[in-house]
Design a protein that fits this description.
By secondary structure, the protein is of the alpha+beta class. It contains 16 helices and 21 strands. The protein starts with 10 loop residues before the first strand and ends with a helix. The active site is at residue 83.
């Protein structure tokens, strides 16, 4: 029998800091606990990070818990606020809004999803809006907040939430966390990458001539993609034919009103504008198509829409939507922007960093980096990117807007076959095409489909098991119970002041 000795990894090098690099370092420092090789982060103070990823999705809270970080402390240190979902404005048609909530939408009834019961009620003339049954949506509408697990046995217990935060403060926080657990930081700029005859990366060559070797390398170099893109020469799945936006202009503004517990996504003439409220200021920006709008025009449109006084100068962020054909090749793993990017409409960039590291731990290699591990990693991660891609395209391809060339073009687009199949299935009776371990579950698809005017022709037949006579009255009672509970909650501003108020920006700097 052939001898196949285990050759454990002795050192992992992370190229690039920022949110991706320090999140990867923090997770490895916790998982390895100093017993599975050294971890070194190589980053340069001369290279600025994108720094606009300030909105997240609920799985971020799992990351915080896995790291053993106190959530209140994390929110204070990063000037964080709570996010109950996304407020979409003017996407289907101008003047019409809808909400994508986190958590549940109503409660399961008998064998049926709540949405199916609501569909039958609507078919019988019921007028109650769907989001009146989503606790996160009702809290957001009233600017209220409570940790759902602090309200068991109430209608808001099934809500969920994510966070808004200052991305640069998050990177600083995670760097401090990682360095306290033995991660080494090296200041330097990577100038060249030396490869072994088998195509593995041997070492990095820094601008000042120093070299850094390791057994495994994690590329967190952002859109430059120094290792997984340039050194490994992996191809790129370009999705810009479906997602036309390729640039953003970003800005920070003063808060003129107390921060709402939502991310706002306001459709504009050539893309959309975000507003992400933090405790001491808000982030805002215009994601746009350079084919339809110049940088100067986008900047002027953003400044004209700002609700608060700018506290920074606008800056431009060019990006390319798509994903590497391989996120793991030989002894290189691409994480964050180095591996792929889907425009920020559903705030998934930070989630994909965490997801990429989570799968890395599942398929953790030794020094030989068996290709079977990389192949399965790539299959699972690219499926995640494609799922998110389809969900984001859904917001565009179902629009009814025709008031600008941009919206006429996205309305006329042919969506990916996978998304087309999902829409066609949903139109039958609200059935969802389910994938494996997806980020966006039924509530997300139901909320966006309904918000964008994609309505099922019928409902699932199993709903007819439920006696219908008293259903409208029961629905009204549930709406009223939820409304009353939310009315008694503190505002987000009150909740933060009581539990997790940040220090002033001057003290945090």
């Amino acid at each position: 029998m052939a001898n196949n000795p285990h050759r454990p990894i002795r050192k992992i090098c992370i190229v690039g800091g920022g949110t991706a690099g320090w999140m990867a370092a923090a997770l490895m420092s916790e998982h390895f606990k100093g017993t599975m090789g050294a971890i070194e982060v190589v980053e340069s103070d001369d290279i600025s990070t994108v720094g606009v990823g300030e909105s997240t999705v609920p799985p971020l809270l799992e990351l915080i818990a896995k790291l053993g970080i106190n959530e209140q402390e994390f929110i204070r240190e990063t000037q964080g606020t709570f996010k109950l979902g996304i407020d979409f404005r003017d996407w289907r048609v101008k003047g019409e809004n809808y909400f994508h909530p986190f958590g549940d939408l109503g409660a399961r009834v008998d064998l049926s999803d709540f949405y199916q019961l609501w569909l039958k009620a609507r078919a019988n003339g019921y007028q109650g809006p769907l989001q009146d049954f989503a606790p996160a949506a009702v809290m957001a509408r009233e600017r209220k907040f409570m940790l759902p697990y602090k309200a068991p046995n109430t209608p808001i217990a099934s809500a969920s939430y994510a966070l808004h935060f200052d991305a640069k403060l998050v990177a600083r926080y995670l760097r401090k966390y990682a360095e306290a657990r033995g991660v080494k930081r090296t200041e330097g700029m990577v100038q060249d990458v030396a490869l072994l005859p088998n195509g593995f990366v041997e070492k990095l060559i820094l601008k000042d001539g120093r070299t850094i070797d390791a057994d495994f390398f994690i590329d967190c170099s952002g859109f430059r993609s120094l290792l997984i893109g340039k050194a490994m020469q992996t191809g790129f799945h370009d999705w810009s034919d479906w997602l036309l936006c390729d640039r953003a202009v970003a800005l920070q503004i003063e808060n003129e009103t107390p921060p709402m517990p939502v991310t706002r996504a306001q459709a504009m003439d050539c893309g959309w504008r975000w507003v992400i409220p933090l405790q001491h200021r808000s982030g805002t920006g215009y994601v746009f198509s350079s084919k339809h709008l110049s940088d100067d025009e986008a900047t002027a449109a953003l400044l004209a829409q700002c609700e608060g006084k700018p506290v920074t100068k606008p800056w431009i962020v060019p990006f390319k939507t798509g994903v590497r054909e391989k996120l793991w090749e030989k002894n290189v793993l691409g994480i964050g922007l180095a591996g792929g990017f889907i425009e920020p409409l559903e705030s998934t960039a930070i989630h994909l960093i965490y997801r990429g590291m989570d799968f890395f731990f599942r398929f953790l290699p030794d020094r030989d980096c068996d290709p079977a591990l990389a192949a399965e990693y790539n299959r699972r991660m690219i499926a995640d990117y494609e799922e998110i891609r389809d969900f984001v395209i859904l917001h565009y391809c179902t629009t009814q807007r025709e008031d600008t060339p941009f919206w006429r073009e996205v309305k006329a687009m042919e969506p990916p076959a996978s998304l087309k199949r999902k829409i066609e299935l949903f139109r039958v009776n609200g059935t969802r095409a389910e994938g494996l371990d997806e980020l966006f579950r039924a509530v997300s698809w139901q909320s966006v489909m309904e918000g964008m005017g994609v309505h099922p022709r019928g409902y699932h037949p199993l709903v007819d098991r439920i006696p219908f006579e008293n259903v409208p009255e029961q629905l009204d009672h549930a709406r009223e119970m939820l409304r009353r509970v939310v009315a008694d909650l503190p505002t987000q501003e009150e909740f933060i002041a009581r539990h997790c108020a940040a220090v002033t920006p001057e003290m945090a700097a």
